[in-house]
Request: fold
Amino acid sequence: MSIYTGSCLCGSVTYEAKGKPRWVFECYCNWCQKSTGGAARAFAVFDMGKVNYSDSAISEFVDKNTEHGFKMVNRFCSNCGSPVEMRVERVPDGQFVPLGTIDQRHAINLNEGRWGELALPHVAFKDGRKVRKQGGSSELI
Reply:
């Protein structure tokens, strides 16, 4: 069984994920851009209960008024503010772990993009990567 470890920037929040992520993608939606301050946000999605966090103080922001129309929860370190997990009402059985917080991130292949129609003009999609116009099973760009 694969084991992944990770942490926030300051190391106050650590975690261990058991098993391979079922989905690895990058999202270019406005919500992900605003919540990170960047052009996109990359996630490895694990089955619920497969990621166990340290007992450190994790804060969360619950957004019930997203452009997507469903609740999204951004969980982050109370000390340094690094995002450590996202939960999505539409995917109740998944734990969305920010790819950049995973220690073994260079060994994980990101193979899909979502909300490509909202990507910033400077974003170039990697050749061979499937990028969908929106979320879910929307058409490919």
Summary: The longest strand covers residues 41-47. The two ends are 35 Å apart (CA to CA). The chain has a mean pLDDT of 94. Residues 30-36 form the longest helix (7 residues).
